[in-house]
Amino acid sequence: MTGPLRRRSVDFRVGLIGITLGGLALRVGYVLLARRDFPLKGDDFFYHWQSRALAEGLGFVNPFSWKALDRLDPTAAHPPLYSLFLAVVSKVGITSPLGHRLATCVLGAATVAVVGLVARRMGSPRAGLLAAGVAAVYPHLWINDGMLISETAYALLIALVLLATYRWIDAPSFPRLALVGALVGLASLTRPEAILLLPFMGVALLFARRGEARGTVTTEGPRTPRRLLACVVLGATGLLVVTPWLVRNLTTFEHPVLLASGHGSVLEISNCDRTYSGEFLGYWDIRCLTADRPPASTDQERLLDQASVPGLVYLIAQDERDESIPDERARKHGLDYIGDNIERAPLVALARVGRVWSLYRPFQGVDLDTFFERRGLWPSRFGLIMFYALFALSIWELIARWRARRAVWPMLCVIAMTTVTAAISIGITRYRVGSDVVLVVLGGLALDRAWARARPATPDDTPLEVPSAT
User: How far, in whole angstroms, is CA 328 from its chain's centroid?
Assistant: First the structure.
């Protein structure tokens, strides 16, 4: 590496470390000021107490029935990776909700660093620093860090998937592709929809142009057998990573459970009269799930009044200990409703997609994020403004890269995953977090492109070629 390139590489590393530390400071400050004593009521309660149970050697038990009823019921309500991370944190003595939130901030700061590495590999050191800077301040990333939910770990893994994929594009090899598959598997153990990346990326591998990472597309045609083998390597490594969790679930519950057991409940709360028309079109309503349930008993009412256990614990208390049974029942209710209202299903799916991309009732989305998701009013408003700016920049960058014959399919696969997930489930802002990672990368690249157009080029502005590992 020559002197100027070495200097620029050092400058990039120093700048990225500084931005990452700044992003960490922002996240820690937000937690200390706004989330220090925030009550645990939903998924945050689940992850915090399940990690405590894991640290105590109790296994993957349902934290609601454990804390309310002193019952050790197995659960697969969420994939295991984020709980395992918090269990490690608990093992070293950090056991409070605040401690878990601060530990999650470290994952959020790591996402900032990886975003910078992705943008540098796709563009230039300056693009990497700009993308990292955007990731450091983008509310739809740092909000999650204080909520004690799996989206922070998921965002980090999606960023790592992108980094590994572009490393493979720069210098294809089966070990590098296996790494991509393994990271997709880990992402699926954080949020189950990530498993869709395996077929989406597999199809893209079959048709992607060769050598397109930096616009150096060759005229050599695709070697189909090698492309098929690449798809096998990608899929096999991804499935290998999730297999232990799949085996555990399939041998634990009465009805088949794959990555998570909550799909039936999601289907039921998102497919009923209240979500197929009116103000909650394309969203969810808990009354879809509770309308036909018997009223709470005296004991269940007592549980509802307990400050230490979320109010919906009575739903678990009156269900079978095997959570796959009520989930199977909820799935049937949801599918039956879809079948009875199939003519409305396309419109509802479109509304869900519009909601997840803040294109349908975006201001109501802010209110719902504030009330139901507890994401905070002003962070949600600021996040919406930044989202629209990044959305526009990303479209510009995608078109420019497509015209320059540079690889955009990894980004499009993540966007497709987000869109399909919303269409078949619920249009919630945090379901977009994987694509929010894509947006900050593309936003940094677009800002770098605008910077280059606004000022004359100098020798130091040339992209820094990232050496390939041997």
Answer: 25
